[in-house]
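Sequence in, structure out.
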Amino acid sequence: MQRFNFKVNSSFLSWPSHPITVPKTQIDYLKLEKEGLDQGTLRVVCPDGTTVSGDMYSGTAGYGPYYQIRMVVPQNHSVLKLPIGSRLSVELERVNSIRWVRLYL
């Protein structure tokens, strides 16, 4: 299991994929890859207990490689009503072949 903190920002609330970038400062990317959490589909459990689908995206920016959790969230979902600056704890875990992301307030 991997865990990191995320501060809700405007791109999370307004972009269609509601991205959460996995911070290199808090997560060892080699461990993420070793645990099989670096790619594929995700089941994302939101703070209200509902589950939405998502995927782990990887890319390269000017500062190097990065991972990003991207989600498919209905327009009126409660997670999109969180105020900017809210802090979430994000857990990534693989159980059997299912990759879980849990968001906690």
